[in-house]
C-alpha cells in the first residue's frame, strides 16, 4: 500500500492494508491473513514441511537421473533426515497431547532423535563444504545443488547461502548504507506507519522500540533513497523482514537490492504495478487451464484473482504460509 499518489492500483489484500488510514477492523488486532503462526524459520515446528518434501514439483525425477551414486546417497540421507524430523515432531506432539504415554513411545522418540543428530552432523559437514567450494558447486554440481536446495537449506547456513545465490557478498552499495541512514527520505512516515503490521506476532518485531522494527525501518528507508522511483511499498517489508531474521541489516539490504534489481521484484513495486497485473493475468490463465471448474465457480461469484492473489506475489507467499514453509519456498525462489 502506498500514499495518495499511488491510488487507483490493483487492490492489495486486507493483509497488506489500503492506502490512507488503517481500516477500523484492523486497529485492535492483526488482520487474519497476517496472523499466521509467526515463528522463526528454525523453529521445531515442522508441520507442513512434509508436503513440501513430497510434492512432485520439488523433486522431479529428471533432475536426479544423472547424479552419481555418492550424490544420490547424500540426497537419500537428507530425505531420511526430513522423515525423522517429521516422525520425531509427531511423536512429541503425541506425547504432549496424552497422559497415557507408554515406555515404547519414549524409546522411539529417543531413537529418532539420536539418528537425527547423526544426520544433522552429516548435513552440517556437507553444507560447510558447499559454502567453502561454492564456485565449483555452481559450475560442476549444479543439479545436485538444486536438489539439495529443494530439500531445504539448513537454517544456520541460510544467511551466507542466500547471499551467495544472488551474488550479494561484495556489493559497492553496502559501503553507502551508513550514509543513507543519515539522510532523510520522503517515505519515512509511511514506513513508520506500517512497521507494526509486519510480522506482528514475531518476537523479533514485537514492540514499538524493538530491534526488529528499528532495523526493518533502516533497510526500507535506505532502499527508498537508492531507488526513488519505487520508493516504498508495504509488501516489500515482509521480504526484508524475512531477510533480517537470517542476517544483519547491511547484508539484508544488499540481498534486497539484488532481489529488486535482478529478480524482477522491482517491477512489482513500481508505481504502475504493471508486473503485478501481468502475474495475475498469467495466473488466471493457469487457473483456467489447470482448474477449469474452480475458475468457473470463481467467475460466477465475481471472486476476482486480485482479491486473494496480490499478496502472494507482493510478499512471495510470506503472509500466506507459516514461516518454516514460506522460508522453504524462498530457498527455491532464490535459486530458481
TrEMBL record:
The protein's name: EVI5L protein
Lineage of producing organism: Eukaryota, Metazoa, Chordata, Craniata, Vertebrata
A GO term, aspect molecular function: GTPase activator activity
Residues passing through the membrane, by range: 307-330
Pfam families reported for this sequence: RabGAP-TBC
InterPro entries tied to this protein: Rab-GAP-TBC_dom, Rab-GAP_TBC_sf, Rab_GAP_TBC_domain
Entry-linked SUPFAM superfamilies: Ypt/Rab-GAP domain of gyp1p
Sorted UniProt keywords: Membrane, Transmembrane, Transmembrane helix
Coiled-coil region(s): none
Composition bias, Polar residues: 46-67
Annotated region (Disordered), positions in chain: 1-67, 86-112
Ranges for domain Rab-GAP TBC: 152-336
Top-rank lineage group of the source organism: Eukaryota
Originating species: Ardeotis kori
Tagged with keyword Transmembrane helix: yes
UniProt biased composition (Low complexity): 28-43, 92-112
